[in-house]
Amino acid sequence: MIRIGRATDNQVILYSAVVSRHHVELRRRGSTWEIVNLGANGTYLDGKRISEAPIGDGALIRLARSGPQIQIHLGMAEVMEGQKIISQKRSPVEPQPDKSRDTLVNPRSDNREDPTVTDA
């Protein structure tokens, strides 16, 4: 399981006013993964608000209506030797604010089966 939110006991910590302390969980169910909303402001999968839903590789989630957008990459964790990574897509034309201080990956989880979470 991977939990994402503002609280320091999450595996992925996001510092955003619209993100709940424990906003969303990614849970493994056999050979598949599902996303479960825990946040009061909602979680959106491919633009639709969800409570719980299966997710596939490349799924795009948004925490709250105007919150951070995250792309999920399944299976990449093994390639990255169990490390969770966060990267930002930058436009060569438009300068983007530095969000690196807004996101923290908690190193306490070292499960090579976990999906990689990428800040989209």
From TrEMBL:
Residues 109-120 have a biased composition (Basic and acidic residues). SMART domains: FHA. InterPro entries: FHA_dom, SMAD_FHA_dom_sf. The lineage of its organism: Bacteria, Bacillati, Cyanobacteriota, Cyanophyceae, Oscillatoriophycideae. It comes from the Bacteria. Pfam families: FHA (PF00498). Residues 85-120 are annotated as: Disordered. Residues 2-50 form the FHA domain. This is FHA domain-containing protein. Gene3D superfamilies: 2.60.200.20.
